Amino acid sequence: MYRIGELATRCNVTADTIRFYEKSGLLSPAQRSDAGYRLYSVEDESKVNFIRRAKQVGFTLQEVGDLLSIRVDKQH
């Protein structure tokens, strides 16, 4: 599990960017520590990297949210 600063560093963004993605509904912390720190998983790291790549190719945040909401059925 990563704290917000660690996740930001790993994804080459700022902690404010992570918070913005949370406020936008694109990301939520996997859990909170006993002290209240946001804790993120490897899956969250992948999600932030996906958001960054989608933004780089021109998707809006709304479109990125739509893409993230798609669930792929592994059987199909």
Walk me through this protein's architecture.
The N and C termini lie far apart (31 Å). The chain has helices at residues 4-11, 15-23, 42-56, 61-69, and strands at 2-3, 31-32, 38-40. The longest helix has 15 residues, at 42-56. The chain has a three-stranded antiparallel β-sheet. Helix content is 54%, strand content 9%. By secondary structure, the chain is mostly helical.
Topology:
Layout: E1 2-3, H1 4-11, H2 15-23, E2 31-32, E3 38-40, H3 42-56, H4 61-69
Antiparallel strand pairs: 1-3, 2-3
Compute the gyration radius: what is it?
13 Å
Per DSSP, what share of the residues sits in E-state strands of 2 or more residues? 5-15%
Number of helices: 4
Poorly predicted regions are: none
Overall pLDDT score? 89
Distance between the termini: 31 Å
Largest sheet: 3 strands, antiparallel
Strand order of the largest sheet: 1-3-2
Number of strands: 3
Structural class based on helices, strands and sheet pairing: mainly alpha
Helix content: 40-55%
Tell me the overall shape.
globular
Oligomer: single chain
Order of helices and strands: EHHEEHH
Structure described in brief:
Helix content is 54%, strand content 9%. The chain has four helices and three strands, in the order βααββαα.
Summarize this structure as a short list of keywords or feature phrases.
three-stranded antiparallel sheet, mainly alpha, 3 strands, 76 residues
